[in-house]
């Protein structure tokens, strides 16, 4: 792959303040010069959707409001004060991006600032705002694009017409949307939106009737009436409510995409508040497969663990690194036909976090990690889960800083391995669909939850495959929630001869692997949890059962749910994790141990996690990961046989690794970072 082809896959999200109104080309030439490459696309982040709502053509001058000129109307970035842009300035900017060979996208959110920076279009259409009442009874407002105008017409029909006008008049190549256009506000559908409008849409769509008392309030939007409807629907009709939202979002995007495609433009959509496929369905009513089938051209996973963590103002922020990273793999394997641009959290002046300048090793780790998630296609070949990055945000980055990023892009995208020496996660759409009622009733682990919890314990898996392609696979498999697969899929797994198979299953309903023709080499149940998860393994004869027993014997007296699982309160912001039933630490450690020893070729690491990949020329590429955010580490890496040669691939360490005996070396890693080594073994 050529250098140009590597970097040209990248896109950049830049607020208008990142350009220069005073220059004839509005700063496009300077941007390209700084970057040192021509990106595939630039999303011009105009933030406020009033760029669409208030559009009245470009044949006369109109001054843009402050929150189009800068994200949330910010007064400045690192380089300049906010400038007063006009619609004609914006048109000129778009023209110059097109001339430079860059696809310009219209970037917007659906956020309302309650007319704090300009008189919002929403102020005359308050019926489109959703009133979110949190458990404390406090109400907030935000645009809800699935709602209807007072006359009963749908906002989506109005928006489809207006956005096509904007895209055409300015010359944008497509639309890029984030917060509140998809998904709805971050509170999620457990609290959103039980207004008269949305409730009636739900009742008409499902042909459901509410109890008489609630029907008497069906035309009332008082806080009390909304709370009554919310409590009844969420605790009695939860699955139907979720499925209704899925249907509405799919219908919304089908309308929008059809109209935009008719004029030759594209649609890119951020994922649902940093959530993987199941979480997106349950918390936000957003089904990624449905969006792609509706016509969305590009999905953008919000893989921003470091910016979110650094800017988390709670007393005890949680570093959701493995959680957010693993998300991109699950999105891709669930919906492999989409294009994916992972959001790369570089910096955000408005939100006041900057990973590039304040925690560069974490940013470097993002680049190397996100580029190393793979999907196995129907031929068993590895393909990257992501097609490139969407740099967030690209304003105020200097030439040397772009060079720093570019060097790491080149390393990350240069090669695809022949094989990953870790289990392949096997995905089933059937199991995904069956999980919704199971999760509502029990809060059992999702496949994503299993994978990121195992990654935190050193058992990193970066490859996924679809169950219908099992005939083309070889090597170890990890299959979470085996009991939710179809009988045909279960039999296909039972007949797999390509390597070790590691499965989890609920032991609550009497499931036994022998029923589908599996005689396990190892079987155990969580001894410390009320909800009983089980693990069974076959195709692995040499198992240190004592290590398993020792892990399972670790006492875990952490509390269980204080009420029935379905009545546990769901989080009201994306920073809150989904609620899961208790799974004991010892159970997870035992499972992580099995995953880590499942490969025929094993590299072992002390003080760090190690992901090993075999490259096409026979060498081994090692990703050595340091989860300590404060200290450098010297990880002790032991190979399965004598080492012939070691090359440092990453920019750090600078010095050659220290050798300890024939098969062991010390790999230095930055705080919170990732170092890459290529290792040649004797006799290979």
What would you say about this model in short?
The chain has 684 residues and is of the alpha/beta class.
Describe the model.
The structure is a single chain. The chain has 684 residues and is of the alpha/beta class. The protein has three domains: 3-115 and 149-187 and 239-416, Alpha-Beta Barrel (TIM Barrel), CATH 3.20.20.80; 425-596; 604-681, Immunoglobulin-like. The protein is built from 22 helices and 30 strands. A hairpin with a 5-residue loop joins strand 13 (374-376) and strand 14 (382-384). Helix 16 packs parallel to helix 17 (399-413) and helix 21 runs antiparallel to helix 22 (585-596). Residues 1-5 have low confidence and may be disordered.
CATH architecture of the largest domain: Alpha-Beta Barrel
If you compute it from the alpha carbons, what radius of gyration comes out, rounded to the nearest whole angstrom? 26 Å
Number of DSSP E strands: 30
The largest pleated sheet is described as: 9 strands, parallel
What is the helix content? 25-40%
CATH level 1 name of the largest domain: Alpha Beta
CATH topology of the largest domain: TIM Barrel
């Amino acid at each position: 792959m050529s250098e140009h082809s590597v970097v040209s896959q990248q896109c950049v999200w830049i607020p208008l303040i990142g350009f220069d109104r005073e220059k004839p080309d509005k700063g496009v030439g300077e941007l390209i010069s700084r970057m040192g490459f021509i990106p595939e696309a630039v999303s011009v982040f105009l933030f406020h959707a009033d760029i669409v709502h208030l559009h009245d053509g470009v044949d006369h001058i109109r001054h843009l409001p402050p929150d189009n000129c800068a994200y949330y109307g910010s007064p400045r970035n690192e380089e300049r004060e906010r400038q007063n842009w006009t619609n004609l300035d914006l048109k000129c900017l778009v023209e110059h991006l097109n001339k430079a060979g860059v696809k310009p996208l219209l970037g917007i959110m659906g956020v309302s600032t309650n007319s704090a920076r300009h008189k919002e279009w929403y102020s005359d259409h308050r019926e489109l705002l959703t009133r979110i009442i949190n458990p404390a009874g406090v109400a907030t407002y935000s645009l809800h694009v699935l709602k209807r105008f007072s006359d009963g017409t749908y906002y989506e029909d109005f928006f489809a017409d207006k956005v096509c006008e904007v895209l055409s008049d300015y010359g944008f190549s497509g639309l890029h949307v984030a917060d509140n256009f998809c998904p709805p506000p971050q509170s999620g559908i457990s609290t959103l939106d039980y207004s008269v409008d949305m409730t009636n849409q739900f009742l008409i769509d499902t042909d459901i009737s509410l109890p008489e008392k609630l029907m008497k309030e069906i035309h009332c939007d008082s806080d009390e009436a909304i709370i009554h409807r919310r409590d009844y629907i969420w605790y009695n009709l939860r699955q139907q409510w979720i499925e209704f939202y899925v249907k509405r979002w799919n219908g919304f995007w089908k309308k929008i995409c059809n109209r935009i495609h008719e004029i030759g433009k594209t649609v890119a959509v951020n994922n649902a508040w940093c959530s993987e496929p199941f979480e997106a369905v349950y918390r936000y009513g957003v089904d990624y497969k449905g969006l792609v089938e509706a016509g969305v051209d590009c999905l953008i996973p919000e893989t921003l663990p470091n910016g979110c963590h650094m800017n988390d103002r709670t007393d005890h922020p949680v570093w959701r690194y493995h959680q957010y990273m693993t998300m991109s793999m699950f999105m891709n394997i669930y919906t492999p036909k989409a294009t994916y641009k992972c959001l790369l959290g570089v910096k955000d002046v408005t939100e006041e976090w900057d990973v590039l300048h304040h925690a560069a090793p974490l940013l470097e780790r993002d680049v190397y990690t996100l580029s190393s998630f793979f999907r196995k296609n129907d031929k068993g070949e590895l393909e990257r889960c992501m097609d490139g990055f969407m740099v967030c945000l690209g304003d105020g980055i200097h030439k040397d800083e772009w060079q720093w990023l570019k060097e790491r892009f080149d390393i990350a995208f240069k090669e695809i391995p022949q094989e990953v020496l870790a289990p392949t996660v096997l995905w089933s759409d059937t199991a995904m669909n069956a999980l919704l009622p199971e999760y509502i009733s029990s809060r059992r682990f999702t496949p994503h939850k299993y994978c990121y919890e195992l990654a935190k314990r050193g058992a990193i898996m970066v490859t996924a495959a679809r169950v219908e392609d099992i005939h083309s696979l070889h090597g170890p498999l990890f299959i979470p929630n085996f009991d939710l697969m179809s009988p045909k899929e279960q039999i296909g797994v039972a007949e797999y001869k390509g390597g070790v198979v590691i499965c989890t299953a609920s032991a609550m309903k009497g499931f036994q692997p022998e029923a589908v023709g599996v005689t396990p080499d190892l079987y155990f149940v969580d001894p410390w949890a009320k909800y009983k998860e089980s693990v069974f393994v076959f195709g692995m004869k040499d198992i240190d059962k004592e290590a398993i027993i020792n892990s399972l014997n670790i006492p875990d007296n952490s509390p269980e749910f204080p009420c029935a699982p379905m009545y546990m309160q769901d989080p009201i912001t994306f920073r809150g994790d989904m609620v899961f039933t208790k799974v004991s630490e010892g159970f997870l450690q035992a499972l992580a141990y099995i995953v880590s020893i499942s490969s025929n070729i094993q590299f072992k690491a002390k003080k760090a996690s190690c992901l090993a990949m075999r490259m096409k020329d026979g060498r081994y590429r090692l990703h050595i990961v340091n989860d300590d955010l404060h200290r450098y580490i010297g990880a002790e890496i032991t190979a399965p046989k004598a080492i012939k040669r070691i090359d440092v691939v990453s920019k750090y360490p600078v010095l050659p690794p220290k050798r300890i005996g024939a098969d062991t070396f010390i790999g230095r890693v930055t705080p919170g970072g990732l170092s890459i080594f290529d290792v040649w073994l004797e006799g290979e």
